[in-house]
Fold these 2 entries.
Entry 1:
Amino acid sequence: MKIATWNVNSVRARLEILLNYLKANPLDVIALQELKVVDEQFPYEPFKELGYNVAVNGQKAYNGVAILSKLPFTEIKRDVIESDREKRTIQAEVSGIKILNVYFPHGGLKGEERFFFKLEFYKMLENYIKRNLLEEDKFVLLGDFNVARAEIDVWDPELLRGTIGFMDEERKAIEGIFELGLIDSLRVFHESEKIFTWWDYRASSFRKNEGMRIDYILVSSALKETLKNAFVDLTPRKLQGTSDHTPVIAELT
DNA sequence: ATGGTAGTGGGACTA
């Protein structure tokens, strides 16, 4: 089973790129973030034509998440965090695996309201997992975490230290989620490579490879033995008019 | 500390 996460930064603006990608790259499950569209206006049809079941939790102009799956969903939950009014979570079960897709807040500068909201969001998600998932559950947490975990996950740790996405407070918060026994799939196969998933549109960041690894696929220990590969696909980031993120993919048996 | 770009929706906001 191939599972991917991709912050598409508007599903409608990226429809052509997304469909072409799925035609060329067979994925079983794909988690999308930043749809920027309400459920009613989500482009369901072209995905259905490619054989996908579609579960959407959308919002106008901002946020919005979806899960596409070739296999049928046996359960769909939206807004799994109680105060999630921003449409940032959707969970679906596919073939006995619970898949939780999360678009974490970007946050703000230290001390600002959005900064505290972001830290609270990490804590709420940690609590949700603690309360709702058992150690033996087959579970995948994936999405745009909006934080780089370690120095290896940013292009210039000295320059970026203390900026949004690489503050000590958010790194500590995300570590609380990793410490629930979840496995950072990319690092199982690429232990010490500098690999990024996001590059700012500005300042030719992608050309200079000035990026950050802020998108993750984490798997529960019950899935550890089934993990066969994980990688970042840079190809779609090279296209004109593409998202500022590129997909992360994990392969399970 | 600022600016650089992009999407939405037709200005300001988020990222």
Entry 2:
Amino acid sequence: MAADMEAARPLRADAERNRRRLIDAAAEAFAERGLDVSVAEIAKRAGVGQGTAFRHFPTKERLVAEIVRDRLTGLAAFGRELLEDSRREDPLLDFMRSLIELQVQDRGLAEGVGSSVLADPAVREAHLELLRTIELLVARGQEAGNVRTDISAVDVIVLTKGVAAASDPLCVVKPRIWRRYLDLVRDALRPESARPLSGRPPTRAELERGLAEHH
Amino acid sequence: MAADMEAARPLRADAERNRRRLIDAAAEAFAERGLDVSVAEIAKRAGVGQGTAFRHFPTKERLVAEIVRDRLTGLAAFGRELLEDSRREDPLLDFMRSLIELQVQDRGLAEGVGSSVLADPAVREAHLELLRTIELLVARGQEAGNVRTDISAVDVIVLTKGVAAASDPLCVVKPRIWRRYLDLVRDALRPESARPLSGRPPTRAELERGLAEHH
DNA sequence: ACCTGAACACCGTTCAAGT
DNA sequence: ACCTGAACACCGTTCAAGT
């Protein structure tokens, strides 16, 4: 799961332990109650002083970034697994299902992607890795004739985010409603239904820039 | 635009003036910078003390609610205009365009719908009015053969919210990108592309309940 | 009746003092 | 090196004192 770029100098034993506790406590709290749980409460849950929290993560956003990065990396890895599993009929659709399911279950992740955490370099790198994986899945789907050819990986990310965001309020009362809207997206992506789309498709760079500048 | 249920007892002249100034200042500030502009700043922009702001709107949420209600009422009225204009080929699609465009232009509105302001009774009433208008538009579209028959007005609201939310980050760099995703939704809604959707469709009551309980 | 700014509780963030 | 809680600026909200 955790893909640290550089091991850097190892932390002192207690610091390392505190860091892990903070990440675990934050991941849990954010998933359950969204990103507006206070750092003070996360520190308390982790059993450390709140000063310690800000020593490890100089800003709350960096703490969020750490956790979002973990999730994105995990998703990219899962996407590559799907690509290697040759028995799957429609790996792209399976992947979109997982993307949405994770956003629906993890409120913090849903609030995190599309927030300014995407400006964080480590998060951007993980996001790019995810995009590249989706590009492979889209290409595969297009070769198999499952997916219209005027659709890109950026579109897939945008669409899954849309399904998750749109389903969000209804999910409290109908937890599986997102499947309905994923089904509609599936219908929209089939080659038979393709009619010309207006404007030029968004590029990878435009998405990255948009996410980073957003706010 | 403003559809006050009961005129009640009229306010003192200065109070009425302050109320209007607060609403105008808030509408402008929320549209530009989203819902997290402080009440203090809105009061300052309106030229009143911040105590006055809380006298007119006992909570920040009520101030937001007032503005969201105005927008929803305006949208419902516009929808009915579309229904009466017999020259339009696809009034539902035209209406979805306006729904999305407004959410993209007005950050406060986008953040407001789907937040807990929908718990406010006056907002719920305006929202219900909007839903009923969309139901007429959907029925019209289905009669004309433009729209698949397993789609409801609730779906339309959910989908437009999804398009607006998904396009949001990209809009900074490509302001018209939402048209692309509306085009995809248009393709998904055409009867020819219809394949069975999983689960039962969400009802009006479920949407209302979801929006109100959300948070 | 309505207006106002000072006061309160809570948040993110900083830092002097400890080990 | 790292930990800690008290301190600061800012937010939403309340309220005693004014007109």
